[in-house]
Amino acid sequence: MKDSIISVQNLKKSYGKHTVLDGLNFEVERGSIFALLGENGAGKTTTVRILATLIQADSGIATIAGYDTHRESESVKQKISLTGQYASVDELLTGEENLVMMGRLNHLSSNTVKKRTAELLDQFELTNAAKKRVKTYSGGMRRRLDIAISLLASPQVIFLDEPTTGLDPRSRRNMWNLIQQLAKNGVTIFLTTQYLEEADQLADKIAVIDSGKMVEEGTAEELKRMIGDEKVELTFDNAKEFQQASELLQGQVSEVEQRISIPAGSPESLRKLLNTLHEHGIEPSSVNFRKPTLDDVFMDITSRKRKEQSVHA
Ligand SMILES: Nc1ncnc2c1ncn2[C@@H]1O[C@H](COP(=O)(O)OP(=O)(O)OP(=O)(O)O)[C@@H](O)[C@H]1O
């Protein structure tokens, strides 16, 4: 049987007439990395804030390690930590001083604070910068210190709100390694992200929410499988031919790249398709095969949603 550390059942939250969460359900397995994905305003932050006991749901149940986030919020607080937009580090203090100060605020003994500070500085590769003021730190170093602080009290669940937003590609990769390391050590990671690639790389399970409802849930592979096999990408140098091809073919069109993606299908159907283009005097400049990505899943979900909305309109 699966060991859930977070359980959410029929969670609802409205602000006035605006329904933000509309009966959300999901489970997060202990020690896993769970990614909550959704467009702006989908309800991600609201979900995190309820789970982190910062606000209350109107109805439904959310538990962490068996404790109710509303009725047993004090017990929940001892199991979790929150980083991202909520946490802040003091710019005028050094990295080490920040850790020591937060350790004391967390009521840890001075021996524990000393030991954890040294461990965390080492784990987050901040030992060399320990005695430097945080205002001299790069974005990646600040983010690492922020997470280090949140780990002082050894939480079971850590909420990471868009942990790599604004980081350069190298710092992003480092942060991904770090998150994977935390999960290996048994910490459950609840991640919100706007980067599909991030969810693809990190998450054991991905939940896609829209208008406060779960629209898809599964592993990255399961989500990709939902939309079929390999894709063929046709790219065009000639703008007119690209427009004509977009009208002839049923596919995902990228206007910027002048590219059309379609399901690969059989060799026979691909030959027919290229013949059709040829008969119209259209020649793609390149033809490439690629596996579906989470971007395709998103495109598929949003186009399905648009179709449903136009049927109900
Ligand atoms: N305190 C509040 N009062 C009124 N409306 C709110 C409040 N908090 C959130 N909302 C609204 O609830 C909706 C969902 O917000 P939420 O922040 O959960 O979305 P999100 O998925 O995290 O989006 P983003 O990626 O933009 O942070 C938004 O339309 C937002 O305007």
Automatic annotation (TrEMBL):
The keyword Cell wall biogenesis/degradation belongs to this UniProt entry's keyword annotation: no
> Carries keyword Cell membrane?
yes
Bilayer topology annotation: Peripheral membrane protein
**Keywords, alphabetical:** ATP-binding, Cell membrane, Membrane, Nucleotide-binding, Translocase, Transport
Q: Which residues form the ABC transporter domain?
A: 6-236
Listed under GO cellular component are: plasma membrane
Which cellular compartments is it found in?
Cell membrane
Q: Name one GO biological process term.
A: daunorubicin transport
Q: Which domain of life is it from?
A: Bacteria
Q: What is this protein called?
A: ABC-2 type transport system ATP-binding protein
User: Taxonomically, what lineage is the organism?
Assistant: Bacteria, Bacillati, Bacillota, Bacilli, Bacillales
